[in-house]
């Protein structure tokens, strides 16, 4: 069925290539009447909207400002490996402003919103000879969902943006509507929640034989996430520009309550459950992202290996396993230090943690080895050799092919810069796979039940119900294979809040959450203004030929990361303001 869905997407590219969607219906190869009188053509048009949504964090990072980095490489959990990229030279040092409105951060989604509003208007008057009432309502639900998601992707970047709910036409739309001012951030969040509810009411539980289309539970998951963001902005942010950015603090509790209610509804009624198909917790967490099971997945972007795939493997495998590129994200030591010691439930730097400096990656949260490749871990049939040199008889050899490991720091400029590689989402096997460009087929998990439990835990905590927050975080920690402090018993107040946030960082790592989370909590000025550290591994060979390793921490990035207060909102940009003089710029730009 995935092939059939993607075939439709390929058809739509042929039907709508090189068209300008902003002013006229993009239908030069078929007539407008053809599309709105044929269900298959209509769905092809809708699939084009899906294809242009910004939700897929696995797809190729492409060129522009994000060249050489996925978005998580702009956060504190990983750095961009490549020194030449704007991710390294502009975004991470904080040297960006109105001239940097480009991927991987910028997304001004009105090109998609025009198509969505145009589709809603046509669906509302469509003949019952073309679609039954149920089919029509289901597709209206899709459009409300996609519209809500578009506005969510913009509000989390820019704050308030113009709310446009009709397909504009420069020949007939009044000028004041064609060039609207920005709505307040609160108004945008309220519109998102209104559309998400309309989508929930209209969407089906599932689309038989059609994977990848939005369902009512995808709509409820968007409500959960968006309301949580709004609550965070209200509680931890500040209102500026008469509400164009910021949400009144008086609204925080109501948004958190919406997030909690939506999360509970999904957990109790959706039929989804946490993925628990393998007895070993490391294997279970690894397979969650590879098995393409619908058990936990609420909404996914579907990919087909070899036919219509992405290049996540090509971009992220360790150095010696690459065809080209490889190792684009180098995980930070600060991130690895966020994983608890398994036997105590404490972080490595906490007193009594039991952390073993001689075996630093053992006896740790099982998700560590499912998310990160550490020195000498097995991957695709052989150990990943990350040591920077080999010491024999007091002499350290750092020569290529003799002293440095095949994946070690310094073996090549494209090898890890921190002493770690990403494992999550990578295909594994008994031999090196050497997966070419566009041949990866892992589906991108956009909403899954694990996030919903964490949304519920955070919302419950912010509403003052620590017991309920513990109830929701416990299943996540139990599934992860942790055995100590499952309910985070030793912590309360701000310490419990920070532990819940840490849990989110680990469980949702490399799923495009961390950068946005620290922004909405308004802690990015601290979390993203750090000197990134890594670990240098030295191999030792004794007289008997036995191999041991020692480890040292080092500064793994030439300059400190910086996040400044203005970066909590992206700039609207001069180009957009030139097109619409009613768009005021965000503070600090």
Residue fraction in strands: 5-15%
Mean pLDDT: 92
Count of distinct strands: 12
- Please give the largest β-sheet: 4 strands, mixed
Q: How far is the first residue's CA from the last residue's CA? A: 48 Å
Task: State the shape.
Answer: globular
Q: How many distinct helices?
A: 20
Physical arrangement of strands within the biggest beta sheet: 8-7-11-12
- Helix and strand composition category: alpha+beta
Low-confidence runs: 1-25
Q: What share of the residues lie within helices?
A: 25-40%
Which radius of gyration do the C-alpha atoms yield? Answer: 24 Å
How would you describe the overall organization of this protein?
Belongs to the SusD family. This is RagB/SusD family nutrient uptake outer membrane protein. It comes from Mesohalobacter halotolerans. Its main location: membrane. Keywords: Cell outer membrane, Membrane, Signal. With 589 residues, the protein is α+β, with helices and mostly antiparallel strands. Among the domains are: 29-56 and 107-247, Alpha Horseshoe (Serine Threonine Protein Phosphatase 5, Tetratricopeptide repeat), CATH 1.25.40; 59-92 and 302-442 and 532-559, no CATH class. It has 20 helices and 12 strands. It has helices spanning 2-16, 32-36, 39-51, 86-91, 110-123, 133-158, 175-178, 185-202, 216-236, 252-269, 281-288, 312-316, 333-336, 367-371, 449-462, 466-479, 493-507, 514-520, 524-527, 574-579; strands at residues 78-80, 297-301, 329-331, 372-373, 378-379, 382-383, 389-392, 395-397, 421-422, 444-448, 533-541, 547-555. The strands form 5 sheets. The chain has a 4-stranded mixed sheet with strand order 8-7-11-12, with no helix packed on it. The protein has a two-stranded antiparallel sheet with strand order 1-3. β5 and β6 form a beta hairpin. α9 runs parallel beside α15 and α15 packs antiparallel against α17. The protein is globular. The model is unreliable at 1-25 (pLDDT under 50).
């Amino acid at each position: 069925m995935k092939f059939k869905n993607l075939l439709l997407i390929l058809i739509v590219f042929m039907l709508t290539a090189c068209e300008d969607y902003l002013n006229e219906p993009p239908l030069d190869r078929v007539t407008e009447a053809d599309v709105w009188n044929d269900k298959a053509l209509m769905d092809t048009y809708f699939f084009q909207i899906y294809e242009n949504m910004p939700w897929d964090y696995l797809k190729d990072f492409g060129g522009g400002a994000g060249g050489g980095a996925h978005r998580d490489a702009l956060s504190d959990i990983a750095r961009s490996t490549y020194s030449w990229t704007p991710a390294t030279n502009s975004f991470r040092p904080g040297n960006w402003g109105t001239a940097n409105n480009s991927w991987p951060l910028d997304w001004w989604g009105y090109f998609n919103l025009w198509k969505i509003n145009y589709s809603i208007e046509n669906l509302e008057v469509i003949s019952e000879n073309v679609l039954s009432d149920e089919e029509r309502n289901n597709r209206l639900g899709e459009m409300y969902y996609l519209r809500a998601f578009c506005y969510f992707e913009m509000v989390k970047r820019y704050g308030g943006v113009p709310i446009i709910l009709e397909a504009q036409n420069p020949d007939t739309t009044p000028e004041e509507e064609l060039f609207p001012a920005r709505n307040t951030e609160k108004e945008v969040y309220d519109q998102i929640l209104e559309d998400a509810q309309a989508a929930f009411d209209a969407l089906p539980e599932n689309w038989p034989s059609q994977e990848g289309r939005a369902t009512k539970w995808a709509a409820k998951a968007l409500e959960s996430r968006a309301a949580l963001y709004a609550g965070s902005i209200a509680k931890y942010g500040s209102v500026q520009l008469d509400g164009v950015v910021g949400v009144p603090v008086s609204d925080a509790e109501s948004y958190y309550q919406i997030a909690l209610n939506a999360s509970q509804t999904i957990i109790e009624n959706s039929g989804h459950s946490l993925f628990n198909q393998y007895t070993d917790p490391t294997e279970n967490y690894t397979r969650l992202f590879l098995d393409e099971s619908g058990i936990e997945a609420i909404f996914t972007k579907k990919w087909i290996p070899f036919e219509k795939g992405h290049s996540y493997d090509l971009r992220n495998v360790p150095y010696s396993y690459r065809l080209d590129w490889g190792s684009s994200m180098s995980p930070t030591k600060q991130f690895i230090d966020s994983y608890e010691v398994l036997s105590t439930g404490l972080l490595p730097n906490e007193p009594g943690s039991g952390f073993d400096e001689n075996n630093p990656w053992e006896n740790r949260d099982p998700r560590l080895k499912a998310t990160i490749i550490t020195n000498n871990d097995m991957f695709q049939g052989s150990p990943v050799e990350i040591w920077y040199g080999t010491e024999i008889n007091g002499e350290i050899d750092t020569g290529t092919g003799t002293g440095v490991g095949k994946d070690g720091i310094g073996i090549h400029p494209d090898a890890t810069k921190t002493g770690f590689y990403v494992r999550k989402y990578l295909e594994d096997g008994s031999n090196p796979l050497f997966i070419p460009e566009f041949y990866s087929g892992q589906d991108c998990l956009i909403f899954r039940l694990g996030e919903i439990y964490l949304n519920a835990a955070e919302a419950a905590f912010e509403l003052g119900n620590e017991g309920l927050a513990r109830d929701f975080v416990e299943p996540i920690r139990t599934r992860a294979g942790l055995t100590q402090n499952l309910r985070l018993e030793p912590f309360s107040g701000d310490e419990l809040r920070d532990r819940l946030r840490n849990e989110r960082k680990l469980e949702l790592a490399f799923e495009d959450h961390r950068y946005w989370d620290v922004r909405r909590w308004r802690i990015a000025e601290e979390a993203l203004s750090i000197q990134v550290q890594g670990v240098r591994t030295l191999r030792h060979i004794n007289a008997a030929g036995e191999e041991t390793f020692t480890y040292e921490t080092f500064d793994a990035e030439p300059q400190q990361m910086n996040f400044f207060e203005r970066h909590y909102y992206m700039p609207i940009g001069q180009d957009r303001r030139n097109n619409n003089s009613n768009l005021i710029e965000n503070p600090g730009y």
